[in-house]
Design goal:
This protein is of the alpha+beta class and 283 residues long. It is 39% helix and 23% strand. A hairpin with a 4-residue loop joins strand 1 and strand 2. The longest helix has 18 residues.
Amino acid sequence: LSLPQTWELLHVLESISFVQPNLDIIIQNLWEQIVDHTHTSPTIQEPQQRIFLHLDYILSPEMQDQVDNYQEQLEQLWRIPAAGVVQFEYWIAATASKVQITVYPVCLHYLRRAKYLSAYGIDPQGNITWHNYRLDRIASEKLQILPWGDPGIPKELKEMWHSGNLPTPEYVETELEKAWGFNFYLQRELLIIRFPPAFAQWYVDNTFRHHSFQRIAYEKLANLITADIPETQQQQILDIIKHRNKQDIYYQAWIRTGDINVLMRLRDWRPNGEVIAPLSIRQ
């Protein structure tokens, strides 16, 4: 890289280094490279930074260190070919209580101001399934690594390990592609939402939410409803659209029902965005 390119890269990496703590090593190397250049060419000065990244990360410095420790443990575990299972205590916000979690860790995500672990195993309700865990809600000082022979590992996970069918990051990516919502293991339902034309022009059109989030003509709504919405809800939804303005703007998307990230976006659009389906979210 040229020196100006190195400066640009350095600023970008410094902005996102909290996502991957190992970036600190790269940043330090870049600083050393720049210092060497400026020593040999003292007339070269740092170009004025014009582009800034502002990414929310809501954790205190102490909690960031703890989360980084969990992340480092997971990354070390994933370097082992026969990576095992992790066990930890986890805070449940709704009940302010702790539960023990035993899961096979699959991948990490940064989303909406926090880091999450997508994992398969015993979830907070005691079921064997997928779940996303916020790293800052882990109550254990360290993750406990369980070897595959440990009796605490669920039988289903051991069978998946023996058959070579453990969950993969590719599966998570595939499920995320199927519907709008980070909690990819939730039920998938069709969203239909209505906007006034002026609002849609400035706040919805030409924006990306999910590849299934697409504009649909009013005339096509009836066929869409009868094709992709449960029969028990169809008549009520058809009655709703009969009383709506044909000149308004309508969008459709597949969403994960109950996903807080989708619900927050729909709330942000109110009162200009009317959810027509699913009925559970409309209500």
